[in-house]
Amino acid sequence: QVNSKQGGSACKEKQVVLLSPVGKIEISGCETGVHEIKLPKVSLLPRGAECSVACEVCEGAEDMPEPLQQCTAWLRAYFCEPATTETLPLPAFHHPLLQRDSFTRRVLWTLLKDVKLGEAVSYKQLADLAGNSRAARAVGGAMRSNPV
């Protein structure tokens, strides 16, 4: 369970596992938003696996909160129909790291808002976008703790 920012009450966290072309992706969250997305360390799918087969929720489909439904829909589109991702809403995020006011939060939100899908940026470029051109090492630390 994760404490929310409002009053410190605990979230009722759910977990979903999405079978994808890169393996099993674990997504956790609550009614308020996505807490974390964990990618597999090693691809587990056989070569040639079809997207239509490989982009399905394999665990936790029952009583899935709206943010997790939006997240799985977005990831399914990303792997199977990338052109449609721009039309889908991003789910709300509710990890404590993204709630408190910090440089890490600013970096992660900048990454989400200002770096386009498939675009690569250096830590220095991301530091510039986040408003502190001398903070490339701090950006590296923020990215290391990125829950999504």
Automatic annotation (TrEMBL):
Keywords (A to Z) from UniProt: DNA damage, Methyltransferase, Transferase
SUPFAM superfamilies in the cross-refs: Methylated DNA-protein cysteine methyltransferase domain, Methylated DNA-protein cysteine methyltransferase, C-terminal domain
Domain spans labelled Methylated-DNA-[protein]-cysteine S-methyltransferase DNA binding: 103-148
Gene Ontology terms for molecular function: methylated-DNA-[protein]-cysteine S-methyltransferase activity
Gene Ontology process terms (BP): DNA repair; methylation
Residue ranges occupied by any Methylguanine DNA methyltransferase ribonuclease-like domain in the UniProt entry: 20-91
InterPro entries reported in the protein's UniProt record: MethylDNA_cys_MeTrfase_DNA-bd (IPR014048), MethylDNA_cys_MeTrfase_DNAb (IPR036217), MethylG_MeTrfase_N (IPR008332), MGMT_N_sf (IPR036631), WH-like_DNA-bd_sf (IPR036388)
Record CDD domains: ATase
Record Gene3D superfamilies: Methylated DNA-protein cysteine methyltransferase domain (3.30.160.70), Winged helix-like DNA-binding domain superfamily/Winged helix DNA-binding domain (1.10.10.10)
GO cellular component: nucleoplasm
Protein family membership: Belongs to the MGMT family.
Name assigned to this protein: Methylated-DNA--protein-cysteine methyltransferase
Organism field: Hylia prasina
Gene: Mgmt
